[in-house]
Amino acid sequence: MRDNNVEYPWHQGTWDKFSNARTRQHLPHALLVTGEEGIGKIEFAQRLAKSLLCLTPKNNNSCNQCNACKTYESGANPDFKEIMVAEDKKQISVDQIRELSKFITLSRSFEAYRVILLQPVEAMNINAANSLLKSLEEPAGNTIIILLATHLNQVLPTIKSRCQLLSLPMPSTSQSLEWLQAHAPQLDQVEELLDMSYGRPLLAFDIKEDDFNQRNDLAEDILQLILEYKSITELAKKWEKLNHERLLKWQASWIQVFIKEDVIKVNSSVTESTQLKQNLNKIKELIPSEQQWNLYQKIIEQQQLIHTSVNPLMFIENMLTSWIQASHQCRNSN
Fold first, then answer.
1. How far, in Å, are 28, 137, 270, 271 from residue 189 at the CA level?
2. What is the CA radius of gyration of the chain?
3. Cα separation of 112 and 52, whole Å?
4. What is the rounded CA–CA span in Å between residue 201 and residue 212?
5. Which has the closest alpha carbon to 147: 8, 4, 48, 62?
6. Residues 201-219, buried b or exposed e (16+ Cβ, 10 A)?
7. 250-288 burial, b for 16+ CB within 10 Å, e for fewer?
8. Tell me: the pLDDT tens digits for 285-316?
9. HSE of 110 in the Cβ direction (CA atoms, 13 Å)?
């Protein structure tokens, strides 16, 4: 379990929204927490859960002293249940949601709320999602379900309509840098790491030398593919065994930058990422602006297949084909 006692300054406005609703006793039975990866959604949700479980909350924050708080910290609070994708699975199953339904019917051990944390919502298969709807439509007393989602457009409208939305904003660059410098003084080249994580401070912790190399390598291969120096077949075999979710996230973040910026700035003092940025600028020149959004949509659509039993080789081939198709639109228009 992550450290749920960590607070992030960019969360404050969203936390105030929750806190005000609780003070007025207007809490809904389901909260849908959304936001980009790497800005602390899980930590925010855990802070919510702990405060709701707490027997003696102070200003709507957990006291960290009562039995409910202590058992939560030890992972043994009987009024809390977390549902996520099992290690050997790719989806949240309907059986897991049925366990949630049974959990809701149990008597509470403490006198605060019963809390369920489910994440990510996008990982539920259709049967699981439909089963969850039943719990959302017939809420149990003193029970709050917290749902986490990175891609709100992948959440069923029927689920969204039954939840109160809590959107976490992206931190500003100054907030991210200040927080990293205060909480991760061991990190070198903080500005570079934040740049490589596209402004997502928690992702900066996870960037390793291998990540730099693999990102550079992937961008180089995509460029070579578009220029027809390499084939889809050879590159698909090369990348099929790597983490597909990570590959897609890198590409999605690159295309987001394509759409938002005219050029990907190259910092001459940065050595590891300079080649990556140069390759990305070359790729951007080969993808017309009107195709960038379509390409982004295709990458996002592929993210929806991550939790399915899709053939790995075919998955990568489809991913690479999206880049070729987008670049061919440029050539055809010329």
1. 43, 49, 9, 11
2. 22
3. 7
4. 16
5. 48
6. bbbbeebeeebbebbbebb
7. bbbbbbebbeeeeebeeeeebebbebbbbbbeebbebbb
8. 999 988 999 999 999 888 878 877 789 999 99
9. 23
Q: In what order do the strands lie in the sheet with 114-118?
A: 80-83, 114-118, 143-149, 30-34, 164-167
**CATH number of the structural domain 9-167:** 3.40.50.300
Spans of all domains in the chain: 9-167, 208-333
Residue with tokens 């709807």: 133
The DSSP symbol for 89 reads -
- The structural architecture, per CATH, of the domain 208-333 is Up-down Bundle (1.20)
- Residue 200, token pair as written in the block: 């997502």
Is residue 70 scored above 90 in pLDDT?
A: yes
| 8 A C-beta contact, residue 66 and residue 55 | yes
The distance from CA 282 to its chain's CA centroid, rounded to whole angstroms, is 28
More confident residue, 44 or 198: 44
Helix, strand, or coil (residue 246)? helix
| Cα–Cα distance, 35 to 167 (Å, whole number) | 6
E-state strands within 44-184: 80-83, 114-118, 143-149, 164-167
Among 300, 286, 289, 212, which residue's Cα sits nearest to residue 251? 300
pTM: 0.71
Contact (Cβ atoms closer than 8 angstroms) between residue 192 and residue 270: yes
Helix (H, G, I), strand (E, B) or coil at 52: helix
Exposure b/e, 135-152, CB count within 10 A at least 16 = b: bbeeebeebbbbbbbbbe
Specify the pLDDT at position 314. 93
